[in-house]
UniProtKB/TrEMBL annotation:
It holds the Pfam family Phosphorylase. Its cofactor is pyridoxal 5'-phosphate. Allosteric enzyme that catalyzes the rate-limiting step in glycogen catabolism, the phosphorolytic cleavage of glycogen to produce glucose-1-phosphate, and plays a central role in maintaining cellular and organismal glucose homeostasis. GO terms for cellular component: cytoplasm. This is Alpha-1,4 glucan phosphorylase. It comes from Cladosporium halotolerans. GO terms for molecular function: glycogen phosphorylase activity; pyridoxal phosphate binding. Belongs to the glycogen phosphorylase family. It catalyses: [(1->4)-alpha-D-glucosyl](n) + phosphate = [(1->4)-alpha-D-glucosyl](n-1) + alpha-D-glucose 1-phosphate.
C-alpha cells in the first residue's frame, strides 16, 4: 500500500465518478474518445453503449473497492455462493437502476443523440447458465448485495455461454455464443492465480512422529486466473464481487525447452488443452452426462475457489476452528460437491489437522441446495474416472464413507440393507460416487427450493438420511426472484404505477409491503392505468413477434405463454396437443360459433439440450403447428401459434410483462420450484398450473380463486404410472383425436412425430399427458370464459400482484442467512469507509 506521507496526494486525486447529467456526458464522451478511440463522426449505438457502460463501470468500481475494504475491516463471516451457473443477462440497465441514475443517463444520452432503449439493446447477455438454477444464482447475488451481506459468487469464466438457438425450417440449430469480444464488466486479475493439479499419484509415508502423510504428486498443473465482476446492490453502496476463473496453461506446461527444441506445435497444443477447461458451459438442463471434461471443470473451479477462500482466511491469522465462523459456503446443486473432499484435503494434508477436527470444520462450513429429484439429473461420477483424475480425493471420499458407514452401523444395527442404500459408493459396474449423498454428508444443512420439493426429498431420495441425521438437517427455502430486475427493470410503467400508490419505490426492497396495493383494487383510475400498461406490454411483444416471426398477432387476444427449457417433464407437449385440440375444434365450427371464441395467441420459447431428441421433436411440432394454423384462413385471429427463437434473460424481460396466462404444467412432483411462475404473476399475469413446485405456495398466497390449477396430484403419480403398465392404458379420447390429426399428416410428415406420440400410446406415458389432458382442456375453457369478463380478470390480476410479496429473493436470502449461514449484513453507513 501507499506510504503514509503520500496518502494525502492520493486521496486528493481519488476517483469520484459522475454525479450530474453533464458529468455523465463528459465521462461517456471521454470514454468514447479515449478508451475506445472513436469520435463524434463514428459514434454508433454500440459506441454509445460502450461509453455509457464505462461511465457506470467507473462508479461501480469505486464503490466495489470501498465495499471490499469495508468487509475486510468488519472481519465478519462471509458467504461464498458456489455455482457453476450465473445467468446474469444484461448488466447496464441493472447497474443504472441499482445506483439510481438511469434518468440522468437517459437525458444525457438524448443530448448526445441516442435513445436509451437502443443503447441498452447493444449489450449481449451474459448467459453463463441453463435456466432456473443459473437465474436463481443471479437473483441471489442481487439480493445479497442489496441486503448488504458480505458475499462472493464463484464460477467459471466460460468463453461460450449457453448456445444461441436458431430455428431453421422448424428445427433447432445451435450456434456458439462467443460473448467476450467486448465485456466492460469484467476485470482480469492476472496477479490472482491458482495452480490446480490433475492426475498424478499419491505417495504415503510416516513422518518422525509416526503420522501417516499423503502427498499428491506428479500431476498436471493448470492455472486458474481470476476475473472479477462488480455486483451492485439496489439503493445501497454495497457492491459485491463475482469471481470467475479462467483456465490457462501453467508456466511449467508451456515449456520453453519444448518450445526451443522444435516441439512448438506440442507446446501450443498443451496450452489449448488447458484452455479447454473453461471453454464452454455444458448445455444440459436437469440431465447428468458424466463427461470427463465436466468433472475437470468442477474440480478446477472448486480447487481455485477454495484456495482463494482459505488464502483470505489465513491472512486473518485466526485459528482453524474459527474457519466456520468466518466462512459459509453454499453449494448450488451437487456441481461443487468436490469442494467437500478438497477442503478436507487442504486441512489434513496441507495444514496438518487431525481427521476429526478437519471434518467438523468441513461440515460446519458447507450447506447444500438440492434442485431436483429427477434420477437422471442426480450426478454420479465413476470411481475409475475419479481414481485417474483425482486420486487423493477418491481416497478421502472412501475415508469419509467409511467413517459415515461405521456411524450408521452403530446406530442402525438391525437395518442390514441400510448400509448399501446410503453408501456414497454405488456398487455398480463400474462403481459410482453418488455426489448428492456426499453433499448431504459433508454439509450441516440441506435445503430444497419449495415446500413440496423439500418434503419430497425427505421422503424419497434422502429418506434414509433423515433417519440417520434427524429431520432438522433438512429444511426448505422457497425460491424467489429479484423485484428489481423482474418488475422495476422489465416493467417500468407498472413499477412506477405501484410506486405512485405506495409512496415511492421502497417497496422494491421490502416486497411484503406490496399488500397495500390491494386497497386500490376498486380504484377506477388505477385499474384503467394497470390495464393500459398490460396492453402496452402486449403491443410491444406483438411488434417483436411481427419483426422476428413475420406473423401479425392481435394484441387484444389472450396471450398464453410457456417459456422455459424444453423438457418432457415440463410438458410443452401437453400444451401443443391442447393447441391442436383447439385448432380442430375451430375447424369444426360454424361462423356463428366462431363469433363466441376467445381469440388466443399461444406463445412458446425455450432451448432443448443439443442431444435431447424428444425435446427437439416438440420444438419441431410447435413450429409445424404454427405454420399450418397461422396460415389457415378458417382460423384467422382466433388462434395464432408462435415459437420465439433463442429465449434468454433479456427476451424474458420483454415477454413476461406481456402475458395474460402463462403455463407451469409439469407432471406433479417433477418441477422442484419454478421461478418464472413468480415473475409472471408479479407482472400482472395469471397462471395455469399443476399442483407442483412453487405453484402450490403461489396459490396459498394469491388465493385459489386467482389461479387455474388442474391435473393429478403428486401423491397419485406413482400409482398412475404403475397402472399404465399393469392395467389397461386408456388414451384420452380428445387426445386420441389430436394424435389422429398428427398421424394423418395435418402438420407435415407424421413420421417426424411418431416417437412423441408412441411415447404416450405405447410406452407408458411416463409424464401423464393423457391422464391430465381432459383436466387441462377443461381448465383452458374456464380461462377463455374468465378472460371475457375483463373486469373480474383485472381484479384477479391486481389482487394477485399485491399478494406476491413473499416471493422476493430478498426473503430467501434472509432465510439462508438466518437458518443456514449465520451471517449478518455489513451496513455501509455505520462503517466509515
Ligand atoms: C435447473 O435449472 C434446475 C434444476 C436442476 O437440477 C438443474 C437445473 Cl440446470 C431448476 C429446477 O428445475 C427448477 O424447478 C427450480 O426453480 C430452479 O432449478 C431453481 O431452484
Amino acid at each position: 500500500s501507499v506510504p503514509e506521507g503520500q496518502r494525502e496526494a492520493w486521496k486528493k486525486f481519488s476517483a469520484k465518478g459522475f454525479e450530474t447529467k453533464d458529468e455523465f456526458e463528459a465521462e461517456a464522451v471521454r470514454h468514447i474518445e479515449t478508451t475506445l478511440a472513436r469520435s463524434l463522426f463514428n459514434c454508433d449505438e454500440f459506441a454509445a453503449y460502450a461509453g455509457t457502460a464505462l461511465a457506470f463501470r467507473d462508479r461501480l468500481v469505486i464503490e466495489w473497492n470501498k465495499t471490499q475494504q469495508r468487509h475486510t475491516f468488519a472481519d465478519q463471516k462471509r458467504v461464498y455462493y458456489l455455482s457453476l451457473e450465473f445467468l446474469m443477462g444484461r448488466a447496464l440497465d441493472n447497474a443504472m437502476l441499482n445506483v439510481g441514475m438511469k434518468d440522468i443517463a437517459k437525458d444525457g444520452l438524448a443530448d448526445l443523440g441516442f435513445r436509451m432503449e437502443d443503447v441498452i439493446a447493444q449489450e449481449r447477455d451474459a448467459a453463463l447458465g441453463n435456466g432456473g438454477l443459473g437465474r436463481l444464482a443471479a437473483c441471489f447475488l442481487d439480493s445479497l448485495a442489496t441486503l448488504n451481506y458480505p458475499a462472493w459468487g464463484y464460477a467459471l469464466r466460460y468463453r461460450y455461454g449457453i448456445f444461441r438457438q436458431e430455428i431453421v425450417d422448424g428445427y433447432q440449430v445451435e450456434v456458439p455464443d462467443y460473448w467476450l469480444d467486448f465485456n466492460p464488466w469484467e476485470f482480469p486479475r492476472h496477479d490472482v492465480t491458482v495452480d490446480v493439479q490433475f492426475y498424478g499419484n499419491v505417495r504415503k509415508y510416516q513422518d518422525q512422529s509416526g503420522k501417516q502423510i499423503s502427498v499428491w504428486e506428479n500431476g498436471e498443473i493448470v492455472t486458474a486466473v481470476a476475473y472479477d465482476a462488480p455486483i451492485p446492490g439496489n439503493a445501497t453502496k454495497t457492491t459485491n464481487n463475482l469471481r470467475l476463473w479462467s483456465s490457462k496453461a501453467s508456466h511449467g506446461e508451456f515449456d520453453f525447452t519444448k518450445f526451443n527444441s522444435g516441439e512448438y506445435e506440442q507446446s501450443v497444443a498443451d496450452q489449448q488443452r488447458a484452455e479447454t477447461i473453461s471453454a464452454v458451459l455444458y448445455p444440459n438442463d436437469s440431465l447428468d452426462r458424466g463427461k470427463e471434461l465436466r468433472l475437470k471443470q468442477q474440480y478446477f473451479w472448486c480447487a481455485a475457489s477454495l484456495f482463494d477462500i482459505v488464502r483470505r482466511f489465513k491472512k486473518s491469522k485466526k485459528a482453524w476452528k474459527d474457519f466456520p465462523n468466518q466462512v459459509a459456503i453454499q453449494l448450488n446443486d451437487t456441481h461443487p460437491t468436490l469442494a467437500i473432499p478438497e477442503l478436507q484435503r487442504i486441512l489434513i494434508d496441507q495444514e496438518g489437522l487431525e481427521w476429526d477436527e478437519a471434518w467438523a470444520i468441513v461440515q460446519a462450513t458447507f450447506g447444500y441446495t438440492n434442485h431436483t429429484v429427477l434420477p437422471e439429473a442426480l450426478e454420479k461420477w465413476s470411481v475409475p474416472l475419479l481414481q485417474h483424475l483425482l486420486p487423493r480425493h477418491l481416497q478421502i471420499i472412501y475415508d469419509i464413507n467409511l467413517q459415515f458407514l461405521q456411524y450408521v452401523e452403530r446406530n442402525f444395527p438391525k437395518d442390514r440393507d441400510m448400509l448399501g442404500r446410503v453408501s456414497i459408493i454405488e456398487e455398480s459396474q463400474p462403481k459410482m460416487v453418488r455426489m448428492a449423498y456426499l453433499a448431504v454428508i459433508g454439509s450441516h444443512k440441506v435445503n430444497g427450493v419449495a415446500e413440496l420439493h423439500s418434503d419430497l426429498i425427505k421422503t424419497t431420495i434422502f429418506k434414509d438420511f433423515v433417519k440417520i441425521y434427524g429431520p432438522d438437517k433438512f429444511t426448505n427455502v422457497t425460491n424467489g426472484i429479484t423485484p428489481r430486475r423482474w418488475l422495476h427493470q422489465a416493467n417500468p410503467r407498472l413499477s412506477e404505477l405501484i410506486a405512485s400508490k405506495l409512496g415511492g419505490f421502497e417497496y422494491l426492497n421490502d416486497l411484503t409491503t406490496l399488500h397495500k396495493l390491494e386497497a386500490f383494487v376498486d380504484d377506477k383510475e388505477f385499474r384503467k392505468e394497470f390495464q393500459e400498461i398490460k396492453y402496452a406490454n402486449k403491443v410491444r411483444l406483438s411488434q417483436y413477434i411481427k419483426e422476428k416471426n413475420g406473423v401479425a398477432v392481435n394484441p387484444a387476444a389472450l396471450f398464453d405463454i410457456q417459456v422455459k427449457r424444453m423438457h418432457e417433464y415440463k410438458r410443452q407437449q401437453l400444451n401443443i396437443f391442447g393447441v391442436i385440440h383447439r385448432y380442430l375444434e375451430i375447424k369444426d365450427m360454424t361462423p356463428e360459433e366462431k363469433k363466441k371464441v376467445q381469440p388466443r395467441v399461444s406463445i412458446f420459447g425455450g432451448k432443448a439440450a443439443p442431444g435431447y431428441w424428444m425435446a427437439k421433436t416438440v420444438i419441431h411440432l410447435i413450429n409445424q403447428v404454427g405454420k399450418v394454423v397461422n396460415a389457415d384462413k378458417d382460423v384467422g385471429d382466433l388462434l395464432k401459434v408462435i415459437f420465439l427463437e433463442d429465449y434468454n434473460v433479456s427476451k424474458a424481460e420483454i415477454i413476461i410483462p406481456a402475458s395474460d396466462i402463462s403455463e407451469h404444467i409439469s407432471t406433479a412432483g417433477t418441477e422442484a420450484s419454478g421461478t418464472s411462475n413468480m415473475k409472471f404473476v408479479l407482472n400482472g399475469g395469471l397462471i395455469i398450473g399443476t399442483c407442483d413446485g412453487a405453484n402450490i405456495e403461489i396459490t396459498r398466497e394469491v388465493g385459489e380463486e386467482n389461479i387455474f390449477l388442474f391435473g393429478n396430484l403428486s401423491e397419485d403419480v406413482e400409482d398412475l404410472r404403475h397402472a399404465h403398465y399393469y392395467e389397461e392404458f386408456n388414451l384420452d379420447p380428445m387426445l386420441d383425436r389430436v394424435f389422429t390429426a398428427i398421424r394423418e399428416g395435418v402438420f407435415g410428415d407424421a413420421g417426424q412425430f411418431s416417437a412423441l406420440v408412441d411415447g404416450i400410446v405405447d410406452h407408458g406415458d411416463y409424464y401423464l399427458v393423457s391422464d391430465d389432458f381432459k383436466s387441462y382442456v377443461d381448465t383452458q375453457r374456464l380461462i377463455d370464459e374468465a378472460y371475457k369478463k375483463q373486469d373480474e380478470w383485472l381484479t384477479k390480476t391486481i389482487t394477485s400482484v399485491s399478494r406476491m410479496g413473499f416471493f422476493s429473493s430478498d426473503r430467501c436470502i434472509d432465510e439462508y442467512a438466518e437458518m443456514i449461514w449465520n451471517v449478518e449484513p455489513v451496513k455501509p453507513q455505520t462503517n466509515g469507509a
